[in-house]
């Protein structure tokens, strides 16, 4: 259907689906018990409202699967980023229904509505795009009988285990996201650096001192309290999402059987050493967000995804860049798992 391996992997199952409600859940994602029940209940309840829900998604998180085995710095940064800065804006944008903001780790929608919105093309329509999750959400938001804020989130989260990801892997993923988003949501991508801690702090300190020199005599003091307050909020949110984000029912055997990292109740020992590591990761994340954004915006629109290189066009379609041949060919079917 196109260069997108995830769409190619799903399109046959989508076409053969017997029932109308489709749940696309990536192969390495863990969700809490009763997630499907919560989602279906939300769909059912919305049928009685003037604007029925057309898509339900869940907050994506990265979780280090074996923290005792010295995870890579990329895994630490992924876990921290998705639990702090990304989670804040993801939930806020969806709470106020400003625009479609969906990440395709765990999505539910009606097949009939997507087929209607794509004039029968269905999932195959998105085979030439790399950000099929956003485009599916965008299609259901604007091209259904009752367009507008018709997305919903339940209390559940979608956890993706990470472990040995390197710092380079983290940087490449962030660059890929930005290079794809700059054509999808250009205005939001342009203002993204101004929503980060350090740049907004510097601008806020300078503006406050310039406009109110009597109230803000020292820009350094303003910046210090700004960073401290921001860091405390991030830590509180990180701890809440990582250690207390699974709705548990009494005697729920599914929670006990789930992997430890997927339970959302991993307290651990928050000693000085672990908190110090978290602070280091937080400083690295906040310090590198602006350089990564600059590289992504001014560099060539080439991204690496699932060991394949793509060139992103301005119409958001992608073209696969052929890999050099190694002198041998692999025969047989190749199966792509969702990721």
Range of helix content:
40-55%
Give the domain tally: 1
Strand content: 5-15%
Give the overall shape, derived from the CA principal axes: globular
| pLDDT averaged residue by residue | 87
* Main sheet specs: 4 strands, mixed
Number of distinct helices = 12
Low-confidence spans? 328-339
- How many whole angstroms does the radius of gyration measure? 21 Å
Q: Order of strands across the biggest sheet?
A: 1-3-2-4
Number of extended strands: 7
Keyphrases for this structure?
single chain, about 350 residues, alpha+beta, 4-stranded mixed beta sheet, 12 helices, 7 strands, globular, disordered C terminus
Q: Can you walk me through this structure?
A:
The protein has helices at residues 5-16, 35-46, 73-83, 85-95, 111-117, 132-142, 167-184, 186-191, 197-211, 219-243, 253-257, 272-298; strands spanning 21-25, 55-64, 106-110, 151-162, 302-305, 308-312, 318-321. It contains twelve helices and seven strands. β5 (302-305) and β6 form a beta hairpin. The strands form two sheets. A four-stranded mixed sheet has the order 1-3-2-4, with helices on both faces. It is of the alpha+beta class and 339 residues long. It has one domain (5-319). Helix content is 47%, strand content 13%.
How do you describe this structure in short?
This protein is an alpha+beta fold.
């Amino acid at each position: 259907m196109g260069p997108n391996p995830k769409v190619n992997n799903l399109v046959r199952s989508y076409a053969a689906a017997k029932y109308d409600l489709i749940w696309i859940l990536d192969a390495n994602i863990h969700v809490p018990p009763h997630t499907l029940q919560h989602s279906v209940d939300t769909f059912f309840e919305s049928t009685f409202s003037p604007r029925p829900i057309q898509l339900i998604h869940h907050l994506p998180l990265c979780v280090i699967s074996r923290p005792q085995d010295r995870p890579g710095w990329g895994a630490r940064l992924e876990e921290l980023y998705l639990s702090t800065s990304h989670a804040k804006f993801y939930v806020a944008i969806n709470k106020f229904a400003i625009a479609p903001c969906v990440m395709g780790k765990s999505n539910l929608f009606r097949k009939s509505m997507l087929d209607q919105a794509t004039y029968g093309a269905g999932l195959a329509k998105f085979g030439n795009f790399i950000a099929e999750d956003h485009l599916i959400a965008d299609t259901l938001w604007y091209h259904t009988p009752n367009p507008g804020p018709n997305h919903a989130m339940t209390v559940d989260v979608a956890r993706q285990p990470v472990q040995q990801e390197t710092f380079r892997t983290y940087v490449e993923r962030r660059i890929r996201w930005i290079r794809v988003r700059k054509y999808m949501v250009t205005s939001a991508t342009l203002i993204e650096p101004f929503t980060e801690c350090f740049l907004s702090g510097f601008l806020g300190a300078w503006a406050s001192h310039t406009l109110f020199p009597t109230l803000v005599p020292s820009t350094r003091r303003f910046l210090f309290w700004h960073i401290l307050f921001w860091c405390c909020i991030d830590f509180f949110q990180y701890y809440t999402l990582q250690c207390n984000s699974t709705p548990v029912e009494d005697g729920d055997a599914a929670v006990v059987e789930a992997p430890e990292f997927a339970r959302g109740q991993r307290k651990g020992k928050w000693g000085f050493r672990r908190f110090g590591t978290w602070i280091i990761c937080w400083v690295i994340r906040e310090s590198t967000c602006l350089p990564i954004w600059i590289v992504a915006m001014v560099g060539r629109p080439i991204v690496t995804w699932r060991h394949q290189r793509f060139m992103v066009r301005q119409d958001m379609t992608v073209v696969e860049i052929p890999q050099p041949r190694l002198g041998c060919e692999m025969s047989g079917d190749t199966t792509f798992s969702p990721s």
